[in-house]
Amino acid sequence: MNPALLAMLAVVLAGGATALQAPTNARLAEAVASPVNAAFVSFAVGTVALGMLALMLQTRPDMAATRSLPWWVWIGGLYGSVFVVAAAWAVPRLGVAVTITLMVAGQLIISLILDHFGAMGVPKQPMNLMRVAGILMVIGGVVLVRRG
């Protein structure tokens, strides 16, 4: 299979998992008394799953290479925590579709900025009218989903 096509399929499936994760954690938040507690449980389960997968794949991190990394590479889990807590909190208030659509809009806005400046080591892709129009269309989609 074409590697680019495989990557696109994997990302679409991951996006679907994100849509499932939001109501799952929202329901869990009700039972454990807060979105923060739900995120904690979610990350604990994810940590166990990733640990088992790492053991199965027998991957070994290059600890010497990690010493030269910039500080911000260590806070990716923090972004995930914000995402999970926000989704668990927002789904009962906004619904899954509006929550996920707003999250996608936020992802696109930040992605456009990162691409434009080549921030965090990504290849530079200048902002242009077509890219901005695409994001504005997604934001328009948020409005349509919210009003629908």
From TrEMBL:
The chain crosses the membrane at residues 35-57, 69-90, 96-117, 129-145. The keyword NAD does not apply. InterPro entries: EmrE-like, YdcZ. Residues 1-19 form the signal peptide. The keyword Transmembrane helix applies. It holds the Pfam family DMT_YdcZ. GO terms for cellular component: plasma membrane. Keywords: Membrane, Signal, Transmembrane, Transmembrane helix. It comes from the Bacteria. PANTHER family: INNER MEMBRANE PROTEIN YDCZ. This is Transporter family-2 protein.
